[in-house]
Amino acid sequence: MRRLPAWPWQQQALRALACVDVIGAVPAHSQVSFIKDLPHIDDETADAYDFEYQTRAETLLAVDDMIEAVVHALEDVGQLDNTYIFYTPDNGFKLGHHRLGGKMTAYENDIRLPFYVRSPKGPKGVKLPHLVGNVDLTPTWLDVAGVADPHAHERDGISLKAIIDGDAEAVEHPDRHRVGILVEKPVTTGITDMHVSILVPEAIDPSNDPFAGRRPQRLPNGSWPAQVLDTEFQGRHFNALTEARLKSDSFYFGYDKDAGFVRYLELAKQNGLTRDGIVKAANEIFPTAYYGLRTQKSGVAFKYIEYPAGHELFNLTADPHELHNIYATAPRELITDLAATLATLKVCKGESCVVKSLSVTEPQPA
User: Fold this and answer.
1) How far is the C-alpha of 134 from the C-alpha of 155, rounded, in Å?
2) What is the pTM of this model?
3) I need a surface site. Which of 46, 133, 146, 288 has the fewest CB within 10 A?
4) Which residues 6+ apart lie within 8 Å of 92 measured at CB?
């Protein structure tokens, strides 16, 4: 395990994340091809990841100050006990985990986010096991505001008001809220979104296709063109543009005029980081498209992911870092249940997207 530099105010937090090499050394036989074929993280890249984590942690001090100021302002006007406060980011971010940087994957580093709510009615300091998603935010906000939702029947989310207000029935029975949630990346090339994965079910009504113009076209004989198969089954490294711009001092993704990013590179160099290390740590590797199902039942959590080139299944309770893909050894009845539920979630709408029961059996880790 690598030791991170010790900045006194955050020493313990940083040491807790000192697992770049451990996560990077994921067993090659257990992962899908685009993961197991990735090179191991070298020292230059690891140093760049360490520095990036340090700077990200430091920015949270300003977030703490902002939250404190908001709470004091609400107290000053007598509205704190009439206000719900929600705190969550938009996505997670890998800094070397699974030998990857960035987001876009179905791994917990990207999709499992901090989510805190202060309710003027609910209990304080309570940690709940309920499986919730960002699709639940809109119905929750409308509910706490007392606004009728004209699109309630179309929404995939569920209001969390009863849970965060401490309703005993809602709090004590998380399986009645939800036990399965969809995790998806239907496009194969990340930010560019050039075309839709062949995993995406074809539109029932071609005139109402949300992916019109971005769906790959089959050949006259019904097969897929070679370039589609290459992108789908080999994964895609979106590195060339990033590396070229960084090495030419033009930076990447339009950040060449961003003073903050320029300052970040200057600070990194001042702290002894190499240009090659910065480049490799800045590269985001966009995997092939996927559909995933995250489930929990009777205290056991699972992650099931379908890729064009394979499958992954993790027992998150026994393997929270998702290092051991047990798809090949799990009971087939478990795989069948997970696949059937995921197939439903791929095309569902509204209330049919809420999975409140799932027949799963805990597999033994391989």
Assistant:
1) 12
2) 0.81
3) 146
4) 103, 108, 109, 110, 111, 112, 113
Side-chain-side CA neighbours of 125 within 13 Å: the count stands at: 0
User: Cα separation of 255 and 246, whole Å?
Assistant: 10
Give the containing element (helix H, strand E) for 72.
helix 43-76
Helix (H) or strand (E) holding 149: none
Cα–Cα distance, 293 to 304 (Å, whole number) = 5
Is the pLDDT at 232 greater than 70? The verdict is: yes
Cα–chain center distance at 125: 25
Range of the domain at 57: 10-176+238-287
Please indicate, yes or no, if residue 305 is contained in any of the structural domains.
no
- Provide φ and ψ at 304, rounded to 5°: -120, 125
> Rounded to whole angstroms, how far apart are CA atoms 314 and 35?
15
pLDDT of residue 128: 92
Helix (H, G, I), strand (E, B) or coil at 95: strand
Domain-located, residue 167: yes
244, two tokens: 């070229």
pLDDT digits (tens, 9 = 90+) for 153-168: 888 899 999 999 999 9
For residue 135, give the nearest of 285, 335, 350, 304 by alpha carbon: 350
